Amino acid sequence: MCIRDSKYSDKSLFSQDVTERMKATVLNSSEAGQFFKIQRTEEELPVHKLGPENPILFYTELHLFDDDLGDCGLSTSNFRFRVMEDSFFGLLRFYLRVDDVIVRVYDTRIYHDFSQNYIYREFNVRENSYQELRAKGFKFDAEFNLDPKQSDLIYKTLDSVLVAKEKIILADE
């Protein structure tokens, strides 16, 4: 049964929304002699290093899961990863669309310039209700609902709710 068809359709909490704001865990291993320090930063992801002037040597995309929420929406998670000559970049995306209720995207971006002693991590939460998205002029049609890249199509329309930027500083050897 979809939320829109239930007695809970006017509630802000609904059964399909069990998402946690998890950006990825960094584990220290004293046995392996590896230690990391995490510090907040105001640095931005160096998008200029992700363009065609820095060719991709390796790329892969892993689909971690897909669920149509009992034909009431879509929940997906995937990981995109690329390696360039001087760096690597990864995007872990969780996407949730509960029909006539909400659209949410959780992105964790990781970037490492091989000449630096840290990994940049950015966690971004974007979301809007269907009502808010329709007010912005977004159209939820069959073509959108069937598009496997719908999270990419709606991403810039969603409001940013949370952004956390960090450096994961690698231990000196």
Overview of the molecule:
With 173 residues, the chain is mainly beta. It has helices spanning 130-135, 142-146, 150-154, and strands spanning 36-40, 56-67, 73-84, 87-98, 102-113, 118-129, 159-170. It has a 7-stranded antiparallel sheet. A hairpin with a 2-residue loop joins strand 3 and strand 4. The radius of gyration is 19 Å and the shape is elongated. Residues 5-18 have low confidence and may be disordered.
SSE diagram, text form:
Layout: E1 36-40, E2 56-67, E3 73-84, E4 87-98, E5 102-113, E6 118-129, H1 130-135, H2 142-146, H3 150-154, E7 159-170
Antiparallel strand pairs: 1-7, 2-3, 3-4, 4-5, 5-6, 6-7
Keywords:
single chain, 173 residues, 7-stranded antiparallel beta sheet, 45% strand
Separation, N- and C-terminal Cα atoms: 56 Å
Structural class: mainly beta
Low-confidence stretches: 5-18
Multimeric status of the protein:
single chain
Q: Helical residue percent?
A: under 10%
Outline of this structure?
By secondary structure, the protein is mainly beta.
